[in-house]
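An example makes the point: we let one protein speak, the chain in one-letter code, the fold tokenised, and here it is:
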Amino acid sequence: MTGVADTRPRWSPWRAIVGFGIVSLAADMVYEGARSITGPLLGSLGATAVLVGLVTGAGEAAALVLRLVFGPLADRSGRYWGLTVAGYGLTAVCVPLLAVTPFLGGAGLAVACVLVLAERTGKAIRSPSKSALLAQVATQVGLGRGLGVHKALDQVGAFAGPLLVAAIIATTGAIWPAMLALAVPGAAAMALLVWLQRRAPRPTVDSPTAGLAPEPVGRVSTGVRDVLRAGIGTGLPREFFRFAVSSGATTAGLVTFGVISYHLTTTEVLGVAGVPVVYAAAMAAAAVAALATGLSYDRYGARVLYVLPVLVVAVPALAFSGTLAVAVGGVLLWGAAVGLQDSTVKALVADLVPAAQRATAYGVFAALQGASAVVGGGVGGYLSGRSIPLLVAFVAATQLVAVVLLARTLRGSAVAVPRK
């Protein structure tokens, strides 16, 4: 059977990866800029500390757990691009709308909570599809390199967004103008994404993997029952689940930045105004770590991931120090661990599962990480206020589990050895 010819200019793999990276850069300016100040924004609208915790926690859970639905939906419907555009669209709209909440009177807090949750839902909608599209094209240049370069560009936005927000707040003395200003990178992200979609050639029947989007030729049922069955990972390899649990243990031990920043400010190691700056530095560290480990992954194999538990163990011992320089060092290691988790870790997921199941796998993987983050975040937050040595011991125990399961995953696997 002969497919319909696609006369649109074909982009090289690297050009497509950079294109996705620039889209992520602009989008990260939007949502990372907002996340750096979400707590104070909700507080200014009358939220209590408990409500801030519930809303931000529910948002992060939604961003991860809902991928169980949208990952299988992408694989079973083939609508990778549609879901990617829809997810980015929610972020581009919801964050700037936070600017109007101070003017809504008593309804402002409720509207802000809904917008925060909707933005995080957008992350869940787009992430499995975007990761599957990116993994497919990155395979042609090296998964580690491709995902590492993408993550490095992504983190430039995560670095710039909080700094932009901090500068506008310092200038205006208000939060809402900063949220409004984030409409500019949001609009840029959407325009670039549409441009990228139009330039990327769609695969034909004869060559279903020729382009970025692995659209299935024959559609399968997308009923609720089928999607839910796929959502639990039916048919995924056993090695994938071992690695998913290993990564879950790593996530459980990685103390959240919210807990770290709370400790730094309440102990007066760092002033509130310095928090976005330190967060931006952590995002820069994430970019460097993603690029370095991505290159190492392609050269030395998946064994490079053994460095992740080491980074995670070191974070609480340093970040909860009473010395500013040492604490900042711990935050930078936290950023490096986050960068590795969101790039090179995904390369191994792509290597462990068939291409047609990658969006599903990323959804299941993220859901396990989300559940682990909730448990680990609660325990880490509790121990950080009681005993730092106990917190360090808890983190060390989780990372021992992570290392053992990673070793079992890589035992005898081709991905554990150098790729060239």
About this structure: The radius of gyration is 21 Å.
